[in-house]
Specification:
The protein has nine helices and eleven strands. The chain has a six-stranded mixed sheet with strand order 5-6-8-9-10-7. Strands 1-4-3-2-11 form a five-stranded mixed sheet, sandwiched between helices. 40% of the residues are buried. It has 273 residues and is an alpha/beta fold. The chain has two domains: 122 residues, NIF3 (NGG1p interacting factor 3)-like (Udp-n-acetylmuramoylalanyl-d-glutamate--2,6- Diaminopimelate Ligase, Chain: A, domain 1), CATH 3.40.1390.30; 121 residues, 3-Layer(aba) Sandwich (Udp-n-acetylmuramoylalanyl-d-glutamate--2,6- Diaminopimelate Ligase, Chain: A, domain 1), CATH 3.40.1390.30. Helix 1 packs across helix 9, helix 2 packs parallel to helix 3 and helix 5 crosses helix 9.
């Protein structure tokens, strides 16, 4: 009997439990049948038309994405919208899509844990709990905060992290000579957690991107802020997910291959100086 989408869903819900997802989020099996056979899985940050075509070319039966392919309600599935066009491509190719978003952000070994490890943090703990109320397992939450092994200047640290993340940008607010030790972080768009990072005593808050008005309070305080790009702070977790998922599949002796989508990097480009 061939392995099915439902078998992969069971593994994914162990890696990133559904109950960790925020109430506003849209996670789980968003396209396709749970009974569909699976022989190859593609893991990606985003489900774009290019990624779908890549999955078709590489004969993937299932896509696991971080960002949900469906977020806002659809009143019709046709090619008059970008999302509708993507869904049509998926249906035509017979590719199922499972999305793991805020649950992966908060899960042990997930998006925020991966970023904290790359930042070199020790004694790491969640920065915030579940926005819907206390965490049911008492340990997972949004963001992370920890300490570096030793103090170092803001500029030196940011240059090192930009290289580690292979980030094309490193926008920051703060004195380059400022010494930092306590670092808070949130992969992706972490502007909502700037206030929590300040209250927690962080010397620096690292995230992917923030809005202009979210960043303004930084100017009136002691905490520094750095943004390395949404993709750069979340993509490392996709690489880790590929490894964890493949290991779990191998342990069950399933003959299923887990592959990455092509590395499209940051969609935004910068004009030459």
């Amino acid at each position: 009997m061939p392995y099915q989408v439902r078998d992969i869903i069971k593994i994914m819900e162990e890696l990133a439990p559904m109950h960790l997802a925020e109430s506003w989020d849209n996670v789980g099996l968003l396209a396709g049948s749970s009974n569909a056979p699976v022989g190859r899985i593609m893991v990606t940050l985003d489900v774009t038309a290019d990624v779908i075509r890549d999955a078709v070319q590489k004969q993937a039966d299932m896509i696991i994405s971080h960002h949900p392919v469906l977020f806002q309600p659809l009143h019709a599935i046709n090619d008059s919208s970008v999302t509708g066009s993507r869904i049509l491509l998926l249906l035509k190719a017979g590719i199922a899509v499972y999305s793991t978003h805020t649950n992966l952000d908060k899960a042990k070994g997930g998006t925020d844990d991966t970023l904290a490890e790359l930042l070199g943090l020790r004694d790491v703990r969640p920065l915030a709990g579940n926005a819907d109320g206390p965490d049911r397992i008492g340990q997972s939450g949004f963001g992370r905060i920890g300490r570096l092994s030793e103090k170092q200047s803001l500029e030196h640290y940011l240059r090192k992290i930009r290289s580690t993340l292979r980030a094309g940008r490193a926008d920051f607010i703060g004195d380059p000579a400022k010494e930092i030790r306590i670092v808070a972080s949130c992969a992706g768009a972490g502007g909502d957690f700037i206030g929590l990072a300040r209250k927690a005593g962080a010397d620096l808050f690292v995230t992917g991107e923030v809005k202009y008005h979210e960043a303004l309070p930084i100017l009136d305080g002691e905490m520094a802020l750095a943004a390395f790009g949404h993709y750069a702070t979340e993509q490392p977790a996709m690489n880790r997910l590929i490894q964890h998922l493949q290991n779990s599949i191998n342990a069950l002796q399933y003959r299923i291959e887990v592959i990455p989508s092509k590395d499209y990097g940051n969609y935004f480009r910068r004009l030459g100086e």
